Amino acid sequence: MGLAGRKIAITGAARGLGAALAIVAADQGMTPLLLGRNRARLSEVADAIAERTGKQPDCLRCDLADPASVADVAGCIAAEHGDLDILVNSGSQWTGGAFEALTDEQIAAMVDSTVTGTMALTRRLLPVLRARPQADIHTVVSMSGLPYARMRGSSVAFVAAKAGQSGFVQALTEELIGTNVRVTSVYPGIIEDVSPVEEAWSSERGADDMLSDRNVVEAILYILSQPPNVAIRSLVIERARTEFLS
């Protein structure tokens, strides 16, 4: 399935992987909706897209840890973007450090943004996606959500939240089998943030280098570009000289 002309909503689009995906998606002729907590950063990403494509994407403030914010943005999309084809769940809060040093509020924010907020937004947008001829729900989980992967700097709360998100993806995949909505996911390892607007984006990486946003963005778009009869349900992507599995 070609990607040009499809409308894609991306959470966590204000920075990092979500921002990089939005920019590259626009470069490939898609229409991105930028969802994130920070309006100023969303506007910066939108301006970068407009400079490259001549089209200014819509920015929608969405705090996945706030049920009211999730409800508001879902209502806006349902009312104004009924042609939404793809939802990419990329947004998630992260905090490292020892478990006993985390506050209850930090733990709740990670779980709410990664699991509860992602599930709530997906549920509210499912009728919009079900109304399309062909639609996708894609979730950026993490190798931290795999039962056999090591923590490698993540916090206990983040690992637990990502495990919950992984369970959600697996269950939703089963429930939506046979419908017009394809459910897929990617499980990246540690990523070095590189933006498509930076020269480093085009630099080739060697076997000793970390994953970059470019590696993961290309993997996501490859998954989404598959024809309707193909579903790459999950893809684990890690640097060749792995850190998570040893």
TrEMBL record:
Q: Which residues form a coiled coil?
A: none
Q: Does the keyword Oxidoreductase belong to this entry?
A: yes
Swiss-Prot/TrEMBL keywords: Oxidoreductase
Gene3D superfamilies noted in UniProt:
NAD(P)-binding Rossmann-like Domain (3.40.50.720)
What Pfam families does UniProt report for this protein, alphabetically? adh_short (PF00106)
Similarity comment text for this entry: Belongs to the short-chain dehydrogenases/reductases (SDR) family.
The protein depicted here goes by the name: NADP-dependent 3-hydroxy acid dehydrogenase
What organism is recorded for this protein?
Devosia nitrariae
